[in-house]
Structure formats: structure tokens, C-alpha cells
């Protein structure tokens, strides 16, 4: 139950691991919004990671006793190499992710202010929606504190990849753990652009099936929101996806070569100032943006269709910080 999970989290609030012969660097990871639907299972999954030496869990609710409320936030963040932010409200049926802006923009801005002051070198992984706006908000806040390094700020879009991998594997009878479909663009409706033509292993679909699959991937979050009928949005799959992304970041900062993940970052690949593409990760975050690759005509049209909403979402985030902070 949620109560049991909360009690377990209390026990895990600061978990120290001994590093013996692995040679790996000990990483403190902070989760901001750790009591929530995503935060609880994400924290439990991170607790299993041999790359995490300390797990600092923060929320404004009382369940997590270690770091509870704004007075304890900087203690939570101190020394963190990675900060994951799933804090904020989720959608209810009938809402778009942009409808969350009014509540979540301020939450992210305040949390990032604390990150800028306390652990400005941390890798920041933002889960809170609307990701297309919360990432530019975070960047603008970091700039105000002279703490912005575009290589270290990520909007977590991994759930779109997890879903694409699952749906393609299901359609083609493949082992999902061996399927990899890049998803580019942003993280809302038409801004989610699955690049099925670049799937590994290569798969072929009739035009109509490709279109149906693409629409399903773009609407998968809404499908979950409707199925939960007012009880929130995807939590367990998101926890799985965020743990996968954070694990890749940790492996890369530990020196592993060739780690590639898609994420929503500052970008010059298209005319949008933030855009998700496959990224080569290294010790300092984004080492190389691997770009769009070859898109088939259908995907190039998806890209065109995504631009207006994506640009609007980004501009809204930038304007919010310029006007309020
Ligand atoms: P939830 O309501 O279950 O949990 C959110 C938690 O955030 C709560 O425990 C709440 O107390 C906490 N919180 C609120 N304000 C805070 C603050 N200022 N500081 C610290 N904690 C704070 O919601 P959830 O289902 O966990 O979803 C969280 C967010 O993640 C939502 O915005 C949702 O839209 C988003 N989300 C993103 C993706 C993605 O793919 N990027 C996927 C799923 C959900
Ligand atoms: C998702 O894709 O599941 C999340 O962005 C949550 C949502 O609101 O759909």
C-alpha cells in the first residue's frame, strides 16, 4: 500500500552504500517530490542501484521524514551529483499537460533556485510536466544564478521511448529488451515524434499501421490519465523510465563510454531552442548531440507539425521566469 511504501521510504531516506572494489565513484542522488506516485517507486528503484551511494528524498508532505519542507531542501541537495524532480501535480482526464503549467511552473522554479544555490554542478533531470516548459523555466532560473550549464539540464522523455519500444516489440513479436526506438521533439501530444524508421532492429510497417502506432505513442500518456479516471497519470512506468535515464547519467559520469539517451535539452538541431534527440552522455553531461539522423517523409511531416506547439511551450516557460523572477 502507499502507507507501507511511505514507511519503507522513511527507512531509506538516506541510504549509504559501501564502495569496495568496484572503483566506481559514489554518487549522492536527490529526488525532489519523493512521496508522490512517481517519487516512491522511483526512489525504491534507485535504492537498488550500485551506482547510488546516498539517496536523499525530499517532499513537502510529511511522509518522508528526512527532508520535509522548504527549510530542509538545501540540506537534501547538498553534495548531490544528480537531482531528479518529479514534484508537482499530475493531469486529470480532459487536461493537457500545458494545463499543469500554472501550478508546476512555480514549483520547478523554486526547486531549481535551491539547486542553483546548493549544488549548481548537479545533473538535473526534470520529470515534472509540462516538460516542454519546465526545462526552459529551469534554464532561465539557472542563468539568473550564473549556474546554467546546458550540458547538465535534461527533460526526461524516456517514457516515450519505453512506450515506443514496448509497442513496436508487441507489434513485431520482438523481445522488448532488445528494441530501441528513438523519440525526438518534446513531451506532449504532437511534439512527441517517434522515429520508427530508425528503430533497432530495423522494422517495417505499412503506412497506415505506422500512423496508428505513432498516434498511439503520442497519446499514451492521455490513455493512462483516462484509465486512471482522476487518480493521476502514469507512475510505475515513469519510475521505471526515470530510473533507466538516471542510471545512464550515473554510468556516464562514472566514466562509461558510449552511453546514449534521448532527452529534452537546449539544442541547435532545429529552430526550437530546446529539443529532444539522441545524446551521447559523458562525465559532464551532454558530450555530443547526435541530431535527427535521416527522417522518412512521414517523420519529417511530424517534425513540422510539432514546431508551433513546441515553440509556444518553450516561449511560455521563458516568459514566466522573465516576468516573475
Ligand atoms: P503526485 O501528485 O503523485 O506526486 C507529486 C509529489 O510532488 C507529491 O508527493 C507532492 O507532495 C510533491 N510536491 C509538490 N510540490 C512540491 C515541492 N514544492 N517540493 C517537493 N515536492 C513537492 O504526482 P506524480 O504522479 O508523481 O507526477 C508528478 C509529476 O510528474 C506531474 O507533473 C506529472 O505530470 C509528471 N509526469 C511526467 C512524466 C514524463 O514523462 N516526464 C510522466 C509521468 C508524470
Ligand atoms: C505521460 O506521458 O504519461 C506523462 O507525461 C503524464 C501525462 O500527463 O500524460
List keywords for this structure.
325 residues, alpha/beta, six-stranded parallel β-sheet, three-stranded antiparallel β-sheet, 11 strands, disordered N terminus, binds nicotinamide-adenine-dinucleotide, binds (2S)-2-hydroxybutanedioic acid, L-lactate/malate_DH
Can you tell me the overall shape? Answer: globular
Order of helices and strands: HEHEEHEHEHEHEEHHHEEEH
Helix/strand/pairing class, anyone?
alpha/beta
**Total number of β-strand segments?**
11
Distinct small molecules? nicotinamide-adenine-dinucleotide, (2S)-2-hydroxybutanedioic acid
Unreliable runs, pLDDT <50, ≥5 residues? 1-22
Supply Rg: 19 Å
| Mean of residue pLDDT values | 92
Helix fraction bin: 40-55%
* Number of helical elements: 10
Q: Which strands sit side by side, in order, in the main sheet? A: 3-2-1-4-5-6
The main pleated sheet reads as: 6 strands, parallel
Separation of the first and last Cα atoms: 40 Å
What is the strand content?
15-25%
Keywords: NAD, Oxidoreductase, Tricarboxylic acid cycle
Enzyme class: oxidoreductase
Domain Lactate/malate dehydrogenase N-terminal: 28-155
Family: Belongs to the LDH/MDH superfamily. MDH type 1 family.
Amino acid at each position: 500500500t502507499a502507507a507501507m511504501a511511505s514507511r519503507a521510504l522513511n527507512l531509506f531516506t538516506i541510504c549509504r552504500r559501501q564502495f569496495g572494489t568496484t572503483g566506481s565513484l559514489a554518487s549522492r542522488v536527490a529526488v525532489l517530490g519523493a512521496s508522490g506516485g512517481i517519487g516512491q517507486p522511483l526512489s525504491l528503484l534507485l535504492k537498488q542501484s550500485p551506482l547510488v551511494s546516498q539517496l536523499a528524498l525530499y517532499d513537502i508532505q510529511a511522509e518522508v521524514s528526512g527532508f520535509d519542507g522548504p527549510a530542509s531542501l538545501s540540506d537534501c541537495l547538498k553534495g548531490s551529483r544528480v537531482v531528479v524532480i518529479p514534484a508537482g501535480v499530475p493531469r486529470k482526464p480532459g487536461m493537457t499537460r500545458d494545463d499543469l503549467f500554472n501550478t508546476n511552473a512555480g514549483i520547478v522554479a523554486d526547486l531549481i533556485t535551491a539547486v542553483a544555490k546548493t549544488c549548481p554542478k548537479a545533473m538535473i533531470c526534470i520529470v515534472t510536466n509540462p516538460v516542454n516548459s519546465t526545462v526552459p523555466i529551469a534554464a532561465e532560473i539557472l542563468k539568473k544564478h550564473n549556474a546554467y550549464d546546458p550540458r547538465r539540464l535534461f527533460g526526461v522523455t524516456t517514457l516515450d521511448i519505453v512506450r515506443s519500444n514496448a509497442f513496436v516489440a508487441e507489434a513485431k513479436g520482438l523481445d522488448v529488451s532488445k528494441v530501441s526506438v528513438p523519440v525526438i521533439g518534446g513531451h506532449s501530444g504532437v511534439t512527441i515524434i517517434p522515429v520508427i524508421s530508425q528503430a533497432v532492429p530495423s522494422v517495417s510497417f505499412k503506412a497506415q499501421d505506422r500512423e496508428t502506432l505513432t498516434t498511439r505513442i503520442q497519446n499514451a500518456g492521455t490513455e493512462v490519465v483516462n484509465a486512471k479516471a482522476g487518480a493521476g497519470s502514469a507512475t510505475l512506468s515513469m519510475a521505471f523510465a526515470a530510473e533507466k535515464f538516471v542510471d545512464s547519467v550515473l554510468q556516464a559520469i562514472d566514466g562509461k563510454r558510449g552511453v546514449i539517451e534521448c532527452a529534452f535539452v537546449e539544442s541547435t538541431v532545429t529552430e526550437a531552442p530546446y529539443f529532444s534527440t539522441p545524446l551521447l552522455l559523458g562525465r559532464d553531461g551532454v558530450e555530443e548531440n547526435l541530431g535527427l539522423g535521416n527522417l522518412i517523409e512521414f517523420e519529417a511531416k511530424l517534425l513540422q507539425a510539432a514546431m508551433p506547439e513546441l515553440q509556444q511551450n518553450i516561449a511560455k516557460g521563458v516568459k514566466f521566469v522573465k516576468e516573475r523572477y
